[in-house]
Amino acid sequence: MKKGLLAGTALAAIGLALTQQPVQAATLDDVMARLDALERNNAKLAKENAQLRDRVNNITSRSAAPPAATTTPKGNPVQHAGVAPSPKPPAPEHAVVSIGGAPLYSKAPGGNVFVDNTTVTLYGHVDLSGDVFNAGVFDQGTKFGVASNLTFFGVHARHDLAPYGFAGWAAVAQFESLVEVAAVPTERAALGTRDSFIGMATPWGTIKAGKSDTPYKKATSKFDPFSATLGDYNSIMGNTGGDLRAEFDWRAAHALWYESPVWNGFQTTLMISPGQNTAKDNSDFALGDFNCPATSARGSGSGFPLTAAPEGCTDGSYGNLYSASLTYNQGPFTAVAAYEMHEGTNRTGDEAVTPLSNGGVLIVPPGSVGIANEWAAKIGAGYRLDDGIGKLQLYGIYEVMRRENTVADFNERSRDGYFFSATQSVGAWDVSASWAHANASPGSPGTGVLNNYTVTPAPGSADFALNTLDSSADQYAAGIKYHFSPFATWYLVGSYLRNGPGAHYCLGVSGHGYGVCGRDANNNVVAGNKASAVTTGMTFDF
Fold first, then answer.
1. What is the architecture, at CATH level 2, of domain 214-249+259-275+318-542?
2. Which residue has the higher pLDDT, 271 or 290?
3. Which of 120, 135, 350, 521 is deepest in the core (most CB within 10 A)?
């Protein structure tokens, strides 16, 4: 009788706690924000736990339990996320289980046995699209594809240390991995490929170690309404030289970073990622890695066979990374400033003597590109207003990228860029448009083939030096999104990329399942192409 009453009372309290939690949008940033917000605002739940404990103690007439901690432990509930039971504890002082984020049971010494101070949350994001695209290259034509785009699965855990005398402190950990829903998995989809860390949250901020998107990347990630589609702004923004890598829209490995609390709307994040490279020119794999630094598994410049520069890490590998951001969010206004520097970036793979089919020769002398620091800085702002139709969100970014100590004629890594986006919400619909622009760089060490062949040129053929032509570019995107609920959407996006005669930027280089580039069937660079795409898909967050 007593045991039944005890179980019924506990289940009723848990059910009440679960039904009172709000439902919000469930992107990764939203999930993390909701976790932090609920942890700071669960005083009501703690009071109910205390009342439940008192009632149960009265009913069961047990002997006096140890006094409750003066600071009630906090849970980390997320209603819509599945929550895994904690494993059987190796010692009695560890929390045992949590269900749905609701407090259930703990053996923390001196604590309330009905307060669980460890919460494990399962979460995920699924994005699958069907695409129609044309790279604008003489031998490619229009193609159809299916892609999984930034689909991921994660486990987040938080252990409240208040019962142990550390009020406001918590140990945190996360494992997050890419999930290849459409493509055949490779190393990219191994466990822990995305933001994964261990850390300590304190009243003065959080320190974490592991791997994470850099502060520079995160600072403006919400500015892009077409993230992970073929209209993603990283076709140009954060991309120093075009092609398949956005060097300054990156996830840093073996990193250490600090996230400050929010003070009057301001928050700062600081990160360092040691190079861990035994080669003075950063041409080796970083210690502990089997991939060239600054590249993705099997990606461009990764050192994997048949990728660029397989003889060593000479296509963008760098040493230490430093990244910082300062953000301000207050009411409808947002402002950001961010900076990132890559020490000793190795571009010696660009140095060569290349014969041109017109009889000329492109000579990039040793040391003219070489090994040098690359850095980027940006400022951005956003404003949200009600225009009578619905909410209108506006964003803008100005970005500066520089490579130091490089001969101007061969420096394609120094340029300025701009980005603007607007999203009009009307009921459950979002209508968005964006424009990104890259100014021309001083030069380029590369060559390209002409885009007017009637047959495929021979492998390795080159027709002109890219540094003789304008390398500016523009990307335009427009689309709609329908929200079935805060967790399920459908979208339709169109994108157009205009490369200048010497430019070779790509669509979908960061986040989409594949990129659409100016490359012919022999993988020669075809600059000046005009790429276009239409993509439609569905997202689901849990």
1. Beta Barrel (2.40)
2. 271
3. 135
